[in-house]
TrEMBL record:
It comes from the Bacteria. Residues 1-78 form the GIY-YIG domain. SMART domains: GIYc (SM00465). InterPro entries: GIY-YIG_endonuc, GIY-YIG_endonuc_sf, UPF0213_domain. Coiled coil: none annotated. The lineage of its organism: Bacteria, Pseudomonadati, Pseudomonadota, Alphaproteobacteria, Hyphomicrobiales. It holds the Pfam family GIY-YIG. Gene3D superfamilies: GIY-YIG endonuclease (3.40.1440.10). This is Excinuclease ABC subunit C.
Length: 95
């Protein structure tokens, strides 16, 4: 099963959330709509600024675990390299 690691934020260089899912489009929609009383809802994390696809969900889970333990600056660097504008990538999801 394919897995996705993703980062959500509320604004450029704002609060970050790192997550993992097997259905990125659905999960990003859940964040955007604030469906759950959670960290992402509390901080308004509605902008998908980075995602990575993995052929096996177990690899995605390991990557998420690693990124969650990174210093904040490393996460910001990761986003800046892939998405320097910090554009919301949700509308680009075509799968």
């Amino acid at each position: 099963m394919t897995g996705w690691v993703y980062l959500m934020t509320n604004k450029t260089h704002g609060t970050l959330y790192v997550g993992v899912t097997s259905n990125l489009r659905r999960r990003a929609f859940e964040h955007r709509s604030g469906q759950y009383d959670s960290f992402s809802r509390r901080y308004g994390l509605k902008h998908l600024v980075l995602y990575e696809e993995y052929p096996d969900i177990r690899l995605a889970i390991q990557r998420e675990h690693n990124i969650k333990h990174w210093p904040r600056d490393w996460k910001i660097d990761l986003i800046n390299k892939a998405n320097p504008e910090w554009a919301d990538l949700y509308e680009d999801l075509s799968f």
